[in-house]
Design brief:
Blueprint (H helix, E strand, L loop, with lengths): L3 E10 L2 E11 L4 E5 L6 H9 L6 E6 L2 E2 L10 E4 L11 H11 L4 H14 L15 H13 L5 E5 L7 H18 L2 E6 L2 H7 L2 E6 L2 E6 L1 H6 L4 H6 L6 E10 L3 E6 L4 E5 L10 E6 L4 E4 L6 E10 L3 E7 L5 E7 L9 E6 L5 E4 L9
Parallel strand pairs: 3-8, 3-9, 6-7, 7-8
Antiparallel strand pairs: 1-2, 1-4, 4-5, 9-10, 11-12, 11-14, 12-13, 14-20, 15-19, 16-17, 16-19, 17-18
Helix pairs in contact: 2-3, 2-4, 3-4
Length: 362
Protein backbone atom coordinates (compact mmCIF):
# COMPACT_ATOMS: atom_id res chain seq x y z
CA UNK A 1 0.00 0.00 0.00
CA UNK A 2 1.16 3.55 -0.70
CA UNK A 3 -0.02 7.15 -0.70
CA UNK A 4 -0.16 9.12 -3.92
CA UNK A 5 0.15 12.89 -4.05
CA UNK A 6 -0.10 15.13 -7.10
CA UNK A 7 1.35 18.61 -6.60
CA UNK A 8 0.48 21.38 -9.07
CA UNK A 9 0.53 18.95 -12.01
CA UNK A 10 0.49 20.60 -15.42
CA UNK A 11 0.56 19.08 -18.87
CA UNK A 12 0.84 20.93 -22.16
CA UNK A 13 1.15 19.82 -25.76
CA UNK A 14 2.86 22.79 -27.33
CA UNK A 15 0.68 25.79 -26.53
CA UNK A 16 -2.33 23.64 -25.59
CA UNK A 17 -2.76 23.12 -21.83
CA UNK A 18 -4.64 19.92 -20.92
CA UNK A 19 -3.95 19.64 -17.16
CA UNK A 20 -4.06 22.89 -15.19
CA UNK A 21 -2.18 22.93 -11.88
CA UNK A 22 -3.93 19.90 -10.41
CA UNK A 23 -3.51 18.94 -6.73
CA UNK A 24 -4.73 15.66 -5.25
CA UNK A 25 -3.92 13.36 -2.33
CA UNK A 26 -4.91 9.67 -2.35
CA UNK A 27 -4.56 7.94 1.01
CA UNK A 28 -2.93 4.54 1.38
CA UNK A 29 -5.34 1.70 0.57
CA UNK A 30 -7.99 3.95 -1.03
CA UNK A 31 -9.86 3.01 -4.18
CA UNK A 32 -9.86 6.35 -6.02
CA UNK A 33 -11.79 6.85 -9.24
CA UNK A 34 -11.07 9.58 -11.79
CA UNK A 35 -14.34 10.29 -13.56
CA UNK A 36 -15.35 12.84 -16.15
CA UNK A 37 -16.43 13.31 -19.75
CA UNK A 38 -14.28 12.34 -22.71
CA UNK A 39 -11.34 14.71 -23.16
CA UNK A 40 -11.24 15.92 -19.55
CA UNK A 41 -7.67 14.64 -19.01
CA UNK A 42 -8.27 11.63 -16.77
CA UNK A 43 -6.34 9.09 -18.89
CA UNK A 44 -3.52 11.58 -19.48
CA UNK A 45 -3.29 12.09 -15.71
CA UNK A 46 -3.16 8.33 -15.12
CA UNK A 47 -0.38 7.92 -17.68
CA UNK A 48 1.64 10.67 -15.98
CA UNK A 49 1.29 8.86 -12.66
CA UNK A 50 2.45 5.65 -14.37
CA UNK A 51 5.44 7.37 -15.93
CA UNK A 52 4.21 6.71 -19.48
CA UNK A 53 3.62 10.41 -20.14
CA UNK A 54 5.98 13.27 -19.33
CA UNK A 55 4.99 16.00 -16.88
CA UNK A 56 5.27 19.62 -18.00
CA UNK A 57 5.56 20.80 -14.38
CA UNK A 58 4.64 19.72 -10.86
CA UNK A 59 5.40 16.59 -8.87
CA UNK A 60 4.07 13.05 -8.60
CA UNK A 61 4.90 11.68 -5.14
CA UNK A 62 4.52 8.06 -4.05
CA UNK A 63 4.89 7.41 -0.33
CA UNK A 64 6.03 11.03 0.05
CA UNK A 65 8.88 10.81 -2.47
CA UNK A 66 8.95 12.44 -5.91
CA UNK A 67 9.05 9.93 -8.77
CA UNK A 68 9.23 12.46 -11.62
CA UNK A 69 12.65 11.21 -12.71
CA UNK A 70 12.03 7.53 -12.00
CA UNK A 71 11.19 5.34 -14.99
CA UNK A 72 7.81 3.65 -15.28
CA UNK A 73 9.34 0.21 -14.65
CA UNK A 74 10.88 1.31 -11.34
CA UNK A 75 7.90 3.15 -9.83
CA UNK A 76 6.39 0.01 -8.31
CA UNK A 77 3.09 0.45 -10.15
CA UNK A 78 1.05 -1.90 -12.33
CA UNK A 79 -1.38 -0.78 -15.02
CA UNK A 80 -4.40 -2.52 -16.54
CA UNK A 81 -5.26 -1.15 -19.97
CA UNK A 82 -8.58 -0.79 -21.78
CA UNK A 83 -7.28 -2.99 -24.62
CA UNK A 84 -5.98 -5.73 -22.23
CA UNK A 85 -2.55 -5.53 -24.01
CA UNK A 86 -1.95 -9.29 -23.77
CA UNK A 87 0.68 -11.05 -25.88
CA UNK A 88 -1.42 -13.05 -28.39
CA UNK A 89 1.26 -15.68 -29.10
CA UNK A 90 1.78 -16.51 -25.40
CA UNK A 91 -0.30 -18.70 -23.11
CA UNK A 92 -2.09 -17.21 -20.11
CA UNK A 93 0.65 -18.53 -17.85
CA UNK A 94 3.36 -16.98 -20.02
CA UNK A 95 1.52 -13.65 -20.07
CA UNK A 96 1.39 -13.66 -16.28
CA UNK A 97 5.01 -14.65 -15.79
CA UNK A 98 6.68 -12.65 -18.57
CA UNK A 99 7.17 -9.43 -16.62
CA UNK A 100 8.54 -11.27 -13.59
CA UNK A 101 11.00 -13.19 -15.76
CA UNK A 102 12.30 -9.90 -17.13
CA UNK A 103 13.01 -8.85 -13.54
CA UNK A 104 15.11 -12.05 -13.12
CA UNK A 105 12.89 -13.24 -10.30
CA UNK A 106 13.56 -16.82 -9.10
CA UNK A 107 11.41 -19.39 -10.92
CA UNK A 108 9.94 -20.77 -7.68
CA UNK A 109 8.65 -17.32 -6.68
CA UNK A 110 7.25 -16.73 -10.17
CA UNK A 111 5.37 -20.05 -9.99
CA UNK A 112 3.98 -19.18 -6.57
CA UNK A 113 2.79 -15.71 -7.62
CA UNK A 114 1.24 -16.92 -10.87
CA UNK A 115 -0.55 -19.80 -9.14
CA UNK A 116 -1.91 -17.51 -6.43
CA UNK A 117 -3.15 -14.98 -8.98
CA UNK A 118 -4.77 -17.78 -10.97
CA UNK A 119 -6.68 -19.02 -7.92
CA UNK A 120 -7.66 -15.53 -6.83
CA UNK A 121 -9.05 -14.56 -10.25
CA UNK A 122 -10.44 -18.00 -11.12
CA UNK A 123 -8.26 -18.41 -14.22
CA UNK A 124 -6.13 -21.31 -12.96
CA UNK A 125 -7.83 -23.68 -15.44
CA UNK A 126 -7.01 -21.35 -18.37
CA UNK A 127 -3.23 -21.29 -17.97
CA UNK A 128 -2.40 -23.12 -21.20
CA UNK A 129 -4.84 -21.21 -23.42
CA UNK A 130 -3.87 -18.25 -25.58
CA UNK A 131 -5.77 -14.93 -25.45
CA UNK A 132 -7.51 -15.61 -28.77
CA UNK A 133 -9.30 -18.57 -27.16
CA UNK A 134 -10.61 -16.56 -24.20
CA UNK A 135 -13.81 -14.55 -23.70
CA UNK A 136 -13.64 -10.82 -23.02
CA UNK A 137 -14.15 -11.32 -19.30
CA UNK A 138 -11.45 -14.01 -19.16
CA UNK A 139 -8.99 -11.76 -21.00
CA UNK A 140 -9.73 -8.97 -18.55
CA UNK A 141 -9.01 -11.31 -15.63
CA UNK A 142 -5.67 -12.24 -17.21
CA UNK A 143 -4.81 -8.56 -17.66
CA UNK A 144 -5.63 -7.92 -14.00
CA UNK A 145 -3.67 -11.04 -13.01
CA UNK A 146 -0.60 -9.72 -14.80
CA UNK A 147 -0.82 -6.64 -12.59
CA UNK A 148 -1.48 -8.67 -9.43
CA UNK A 149 1.62 -10.88 -9.78
CA UNK A 150 3.85 -7.81 -9.70
CA UNK A 151 2.58 -7.01 -6.18
CA UNK A 152 2.66 -3.27 -6.94
CA UNK A 153 2.42 -0.39 -4.51
CA UNK A 154 -0.45 1.06 -6.55
CA UNK A 155 -2.75 -0.44 -9.20
CA UNK A 156 -3.73 1.77 -12.14
CA UNK A 157 -6.84 0.92 -14.22
CA UNK A 158 -7.53 2.77 -17.49
CA UNK A 159 -11.21 2.17 -18.38
CA UNK A 160 -10.72 -1.60 -18.07
CA UNK A 161 -14.39 -2.54 -18.57
CA UNK A 162 -15.31 -0.39 -21.57
CA UNK A 163 -14.95 -3.29 -24.05
CA UNK A 164 -17.30 -5.61 -22.15
CA UNK A 165 -21.06 -6.00 -22.52
CA UNK A 166 -23.39 -4.54 -19.89
CA UNK A 167 -23.96 -7.75 -17.91
CA UNK A 168 -20.25 -8.62 -17.80
CA UNK A 169 -19.36 -5.05 -16.77
CA UNK A 170 -21.55 -5.43 -13.69
CA UNK A 171 -19.93 -8.75 -12.79
CA UNK A 172 -16.39 -7.42 -13.31
CA UNK A 173 -17.13 -4.32 -11.20
CA UNK A 174 -17.88 -6.63 -8.32
CA UNK A 175 -14.73 -8.69 -8.95
CA UNK A 176 -12.44 -5.65 -9.02
CA UNK A 177 -14.05 -4.24 -5.87
CA UNK A 178 -13.62 -7.65 -4.22
CA UNK A 179 -9.97 -7.76 -5.32
CA UNK A 180 -9.40 -4.40 -3.65
CA UNK A 181 -10.89 -5.66 -0.39
CA UNK A 182 -8.70 -8.79 -0.45
CA UNK A 183 -5.44 -7.05 -1.36
CA UNK A 184 -5.93 -3.68 0.33
CA UNK A 185 -3.68 -1.91 -2.20
CA UNK A 186 -4.15 1.67 -3.32
CA UNK A 187 -6.02 1.66 -6.62
CA UNK A 188 -6.56 4.45 -9.15
CA UNK A 189 -9.33 3.75 -11.63
CA UNK A 190 -10.26 5.85 -14.67
CA UNK A 191 -13.76 5.74 -16.17
CA UNK A 192 -16.31 7.97 -17.88
CA UNK A 193 -19.11 5.88 -16.34
CA UNK A 194 -20.36 7.53 -13.16
CA UNK A 195 -22.21 4.33 -12.15
CA UNK A 196 -18.84 2.54 -11.98
CA UNK A 197 -17.48 5.45 -9.97
CA UNK A 198 -20.36 5.45 -7.48
CA UNK A 199 -20.39 1.69 -6.92
CA UNK A 200 -16.64 1.05 -6.64
CA UNK A 201 -14.89 4.11 -5.20
CA UNK A 202 -13.83 5.09 -1.71
CA UNK A 203 -13.14 8.56 -3.18
CA UNK A 204 -14.08 10.12 -6.51
CA UNK A 205 -12.24 12.91 -8.31
CA UNK A 206 -14.59 14.57 -10.82
CA UNK A 207 -12.52 16.09 -13.63
CA UNK A 208 -13.46 18.68 -16.22
CA UNK A 209 -11.08 20.29 -18.74
CA UNK A 210 -7.97 19.25 -16.80
CA UNK A 211 -9.17 20.44 -13.39
CA UNK A 212 -10.65 18.67 -10.37
CA UNK A 213 -14.16 20.02 -9.84
CA UNK A 214 -14.71 18.06 -6.60
CA UNK A 215 -12.99 15.27 -4.68
CA UNK A 216 -14.63 13.22 -1.96
CA UNK A 217 -16.71 10.18 -0.99
CA UNK A 218 -19.32 9.09 -3.55
CA UNK A 219 -22.37 9.95 -1.44
CA UNK A 220 -20.87 13.29 -0.40
CA UNK A 221 -20.61 14.23 -4.07
CA UNK A 222 -24.14 12.98 -4.70
CA UNK A 223 -25.69 14.72 -1.69
CA UNK A 224 -23.59 17.89 -1.64
CA UNK A 225 -22.32 18.62 -5.17
CA UNK A 226 -19.99 21.61 -5.30
CA UNK A 227 -21.46 22.97 -8.53
CA UNK A 228 -23.91 22.27 -11.34
CA UNK A 229 -21.33 20.28 -13.32
CA UNK A 230 -20.81 17.75 -10.51
CA UNK A 231 -24.55 17.73 -9.75
CA UNK A 232 -25.32 16.93 -13.38
CA UNK A 233 -22.57 14.35 -13.79
CA UNK A 234 -22.94 12.33 -10.58
CA UNK A 235 -26.22 10.46 -10.37
CA UNK A 236 -28.32 8.64 -12.96
CA UNK A 237 -30.47 10.03 -14.44
CA UNK A 238 -28.76 13.42 -14.22
CA UNK A 239 -30.13 16.09 -11.89
CA UNK A 240 -32.91 18.32 -13.24
CA UNK A 241 -32.16 22.07 -13.36
CA UNK A 242 -34.66 24.92 -13.35
CA UNK A 243 -34.09 28.67 -13.65
CA UNK A 244 -35.52 30.70 -10.79
CA UNK A 245 -35.33 34.09 -9.10
CA UNK A 246 -35.19 34.75 -5.36
CA UNK A 247 -38.35 36.75 -4.59
CA UNK A 248 -37.76 37.07 -0.84
CA UNK A 249 -35.63 35.73 2.02
CA UNK A 250 -36.19 35.70 5.77
CA UNK A 251 -34.78 33.73 8.72
CA UNK A 252 -36.64 30.56 7.84
CA UNK A 253 -37.82 30.72 4.24
CA UNK A 254 -36.68 31.47 0.72
CA UNK A 255 -39.43 32.16 -1.78
CA UNK A 256 -38.41 31.38 -5.33
CA UNK A 257 -40.26 32.25 -8.50
CA UNK A 258 -39.51 29.73 -11.21
CA UNK A 259 -39.06 30.78 -14.81
CA UNK A 260 -42.37 29.04 -15.48
CA UNK A 261 -44.17 31.35 -13.04
CA UNK A 262 -44.63 29.02 -10.05
CA UNK A 263 -43.72 29.83 -6.44
CA UNK A 264 -41.45 27.45 -4.54
CA UNK A 265 -40.69 27.86 -0.84
CA UNK A 266 -37.45 26.43 0.62
CA UNK A 267 -35.73 26.41 4.01
CA UNK A 268 -33.40 29.46 4.08
CA UNK A 269 -31.30 27.88 6.84
CA UNK A 270 -29.80 25.50 4.25
CA UNK A 271 -28.60 28.14 1.80
CA UNK A 272 -26.71 31.44 1.53
CA UNK A 273 -28.94 33.37 -0.85
CA UNK A 274 -29.25 37.16 -1.22
CA UNK A 275 -32.62 38.44 -2.40
CA UNK A 276 -33.43 39.27 -6.03
CA UNK A 277 -30.68 37.02 -7.40
CA UNK A 278 -31.04 34.60 -10.30
CA UNK A 279 -30.40 31.03 -9.15
CA UNK A 280 -30.52 27.50 -10.53
CA UNK A 281 -32.75 25.07 -8.68
CA UNK A 282 -31.62 21.43 -8.81
CA UNK A 283 -33.82 18.43 -8.05
CA UNK A 284 -33.14 14.74 -8.72
CA UNK A 285 -35.56 12.62 -10.71
CA UNK A 286 -36.43 10.41 -7.73
CA UNK A 287 -37.20 13.37 -5.45
CA UNK A 288 -40.43 14.34 -7.23
CA UNK A 289 -43.95 12.94 -7.35
CA UNK A 290 -46.95 13.58 -9.60
CA UNK A 291 -50.23 15.18 -8.52
CA UNK A 292 -53.10 17.14 -10.04
CA UNK A 293 -51.68 19.91 -12.21
CA UNK A 294 -53.49 22.54 -10.11
CA UNK A 295 -51.70 21.39 -6.95
CA UNK A 296 -48.13 20.94 -8.16
CA UNK A 297 -45.02 23.08 -7.95
CA UNK A 298 -44.67 22.67 -11.74
CA UNK A 299 -46.78 21.48 -14.64
CA UNK A 300 -45.13 18.92 -16.91
CA UNK A 301 -46.08 18.25 -20.52
CA UNK A 302 -45.28 14.53 -20.90
CA UNK A 303 -43.27 13.58 -23.99
CA UNK A 304 -42.63 9.90 -23.29
CA UNK A 305 -42.54 7.25 -20.55
CA UNK A 306 -40.52 4.12 -19.86
CA UNK A 307 -42.29 1.37 -17.95
CA UNK A 308 -39.70 -0.99 -16.45
CA UNK A 309 -42.06 -2.99 -14.22
CA UNK A 310 -40.71 -2.02 -10.83
CA UNK A 311 -40.14 1.61 -11.80
CA UNK A 312 -41.30 4.23 -14.28
CA UNK A 313 -39.41 7.06 -15.98
CA UNK A 314 -41.39 10.06 -17.20
CA UNK A 315 -39.82 12.56 -19.62
CA UNK A 316 -41.32 15.92 -20.46
CA UNK A 317 -41.03 19.70 -20.67
CA UNK A 318 -42.10 22.40 -18.25
CA UNK A 319 -41.53 24.98 -21.01
CA UNK A 320 -40.01 24.96 -24.50
CA UNK A 321 -36.41 24.88 -23.22
CA UNK A 322 -36.60 23.16 -19.84
CA UNK A 323 -36.77 19.37 -19.79
CA UNK A 324 -37.62 17.32 -16.70
CA UNK A 325 -37.14 13.63 -15.87
CA UNK A 326 -39.12 11.87 -13.14
CA UNK A 327 -38.13 8.50 -11.65
CA UNK A 328 -41.19 6.98 -9.95
CA UNK A 329 -41.56 3.74 -8.02
CA UNK A 330 -43.79 1.03 -9.44
CA UNK A 331 -46.03 1.16 -12.51
CA UNK A 332 -47.50 4.61 -13.10
CA UNK A 333 -50.24 5.19 -15.67
CA UNK A 334 -48.97 8.31 -17.45
CA UNK A 335 -49.25 8.79 -21.21
CA UNK A 336 -47.43 10.92 -23.75
CA UNK A 337 -49.27 14.19 -24.36
CA UNK A 338 -50.71 14.30 -20.85
CA UNK A 339 -50.24 17.34 -18.56
CA UNK A 340 -49.41 16.44 -14.96
CA UNK A 341 -48.58 18.34 -11.80
CA UNK A 342 -45.17 17.75 -10.20
CA UNK A 343 -44.44 18.14 -6.48
CA UNK A 344 -40.84 18.45 -5.26
CA UNK A 345 -39.43 17.08 -2.02
CA UNK A 346 -38.28 20.46 -0.66
CA UNK A 347 -35.78 18.79 1.70
CA UNK A 348 -33.90 17.31 -1.29
CA UNK A 349 -33.50 20.43 -3.44
CA UNK A 350 -30.21 22.11 -4.35
CA UNK A 351 -29.55 25.78 -5.13
CA UNK A 352 -26.70 27.07 -7.28
CA UNK A 353 -25.54 30.53 -8.26
CA UNK A 354 -26.81 31.19 -11.77
CA UNK A 355 -23.60 32.84 -12.95
CA UNK A 356 -20.84 30.67 -11.47
CA UNK A 357 -22.79 27.43 -11.06
CA UNK A 358 -21.39 27.08 -7.50
CA UNK A 359 -23.52 25.56 -4.74
CA UNK A 360 -25.23 27.97 -2.36
CA UNK A 361 -25.60 25.37 0.38
CA UNK A 362 -24.33 26.46 3.80
Amino acid sequence: MATLELKDIRKSYGKVDVIHGLDLFVDSGDFCVFVGPSGCGKSTLLRMIAGLESITSGEVCIEGESVNHITAARRGLAMVFQSYALYPHMSVKANLSFGLENLNMPKAEIEERVSEAGRMLQIDELMQRKPGHLSGGQRQRVAIGRAVVREPKIFLFDEPLSNLDAELRVAMRGEIAGLHKRLGNTMIYVTHDQVEAMTMADKIAVLRAGCVEQYGKPLDLYNRPANTFVAGFIGSPRMNFLDATVASVNDTQIQLRSAQGGNIVLDSRKYKVPSNDAVTLGIRANHMQITNDSEGDLVLQVNSTEQLGGETYVYGNVDEETKLTLHLAGQVDVQAGQRIGVVMNKHETHLFDKGSGMSLRR
